[in-house]
Structure formats: C-alpha cells, structure tokens
Amino acid sequence: MKNGLFLLPVAQRIEIMPAICKKQDGTVFAAMTWLAFGLSWLAPTFASAYLEDRIVAVVNSDLIMLSDVKRECEPQLQQIKRQHRGEDLAQRVKTAESMALTKLIEQRLQLQEAKAKGIDVSDMELAQAAEQLKLQGSTVDLADPRQRRSLREQMLLMRVVDREVRGAVMVGESEMKRYYQEHRDRFAVPEEYLLSQILVRSRSADDVPDALAKIRKAMDELKRGERFEDVALRYSEGPNALEGGKLGLVRQGELLPAIDQAIAPLVPGAVTDIIETVQGFHILRVDEKKPRQYRPFEEVKREIQGLIFEQKAEERFQSWLAGLKNKAYIEIKF
C-alpha cells in the first residue's frame, strides 16, 4: 500500500493492461505490445513532450497523467512558489501534487461507479447547468471540450454521491433530541444587558490626565447621589449622552472584554468602577439583566437535522469511498 492506496506486485500490475486493450473480436494485446504500439508512432520531435508527460496512476481502466496532476494543483502551486524557496518549496510542491493525485484517483473511482450505476448527464442538463452558473457569475464554455468534460464530471460526481451516499442517510426524531440535550450550549442565547454609560474619551496619551480627572468628577457626583442620567448629560462624550447615556440592549460578548468582565457580577441598578479601555474611561450602570436562555427544541429542530445529516453523510461517504478503493485496481507510478 502506498499513500493509502493499493500497489500490486509488478507481475500483477501487467494483468490490468490486456483488459484495457481488448479488441472487438476478443483478441487481447499483451501489455508490453500495447505500450510499444503507443510509442512506435511518436515522431522524434515529440519525444521530449512525451518524456515531460507520463502515466502516474492506473485506476482500473483509467490512466492519470502527470499533466492531469499538474493541472489540478496549478493554482495552489503558484501560491506555494510565491511564498516558499529551496527545500521547503520542493517539499510543499511534492505534498500538493500527492494530494492532487489522491483527489484525482478518488474522482475517477466515483466516476467509474457512476457509469456502472447508469448515472449520466444529458446535453440538455449540461446546458442548463452552464446557464445557471452564468447567472451566478461563472462562465463555462461548452464549446471547449475540456470545460465541457469538467462540468459534466462535476455533475456526475454530485449525482453519484447523492444517490449512493446522501440518499441513504436518515435522521430520526430521537437522534435530534439526543443531540439537543448533549449540545445545549450550542443553542444558548447569551446573557443580555440593558446598560447606561458615561464615557470620557482619551484619544492620545496627552489626553489621559484630563480625561481621568473628568471621569473621577463624574464618579464623585454619582457617589453623592446624583442621578446617573444627569451626570451622563454633563460629562459623557458617548453617542447617547443626550439620552442619559442609555446604550440599549447588548449581549454578553458584544462589549469590550474589560466592560464585559466588570458588569458580569453586577445586579440591576449597580454601577461599575471606572473602567479604562482603548476608547477612554467608562462608568456603566446595569439597568436590566436577562439571564442566559436556551432556544427551544422546536425552534432549532431543522438546524439539528442538518447538522446530524451532514455528519452522517460524511461518515457514509468515507466508508463508501473506502469500499471503492478496496475493490479497485490502483497502481501509483508517482
């Protein structure tokens, strides 16, 4: 086994080639004869081109060429070559090409399975898909054989997976309820606060002494029993100063960390100490607290169904793909 794929002994590898090369009258060319025939008509001027491209994998009756691998990972290779040099570059290129080859092998197996199951894409469906992609901002030139084949193969891959994998996945009510109980935090609504604020801004280090003196005066007035709204109107530089500093409803986690931490233990009506943040100096009053709640099961039922479905579909897909590999002839020459 190499790269997670089966590699047969040389004597067994040759057995695959006659199956590829059967003639209509039932006679069979030997593998080496087939290869010799394939090479014999190549003119000398094409020798260098042939050497640049070669077979890197045999997947049942399909051949994967080095050019296929290069084409598959070309965008990634361009990025790698911009960011890396030397041995690091060589290793990353090798890894990218190996991953591209694995992807191509898996795609060939799925396409072969689609053919075996009689799954196909008509010319009309291909045209409709191209038109839909055009509406979404992508362009496919169906007159280009390579683009036409690529779109057709992508549609076949989706169809065979839908039929053989996703179509067999079921999600029961009991599974959804169990998931809800085991992952309740995922469906929690954070604690919410109604807050009022006095903010004195400090835009630079030079502003800090004056800003601190101003916020301390505001705190002194609050301690003497002045109404928060009146103090905010006199001192606050926040956007809601004219409304008594009212910020409205905010959720835990939406505020700056220092403010979140300061108001978390407070009860409604309580006022924080002076808090310094990147914005300046703050004093906040907690006007109301809404405790953390959980969205009801019926509200999140469809969301849970989707989560479980995707998880089960992925597990089934990996099992199905492993089965295709196990029964396939795969030889890697990379």
Automatic annotation (TrEMBL):
GO molecular function: peptidyl-prolyl cis-trans isomerase activity
Signal peptide, first to last residue: none
Keyword list, A-Z: Isomerase, Rotamase, Signal
Pfam families in the record: Rotamase_2, SurA_N_3
Start and end residues of each PpiC domain: 190-288
SUPFAM superfamilies given in the database record: FKBP-like, Triger factor/SurA peptide-binding domain-like
EC class of the enzyme, as a word: isomerase
PROSITE patterns: PPIC_PPIASE_2
EC assignment: 5.2.1.8
Name assigned to this protein: Putative Peptidylprolyl isomerase
Annotated source species: Candidatus Nitrospira inopinata
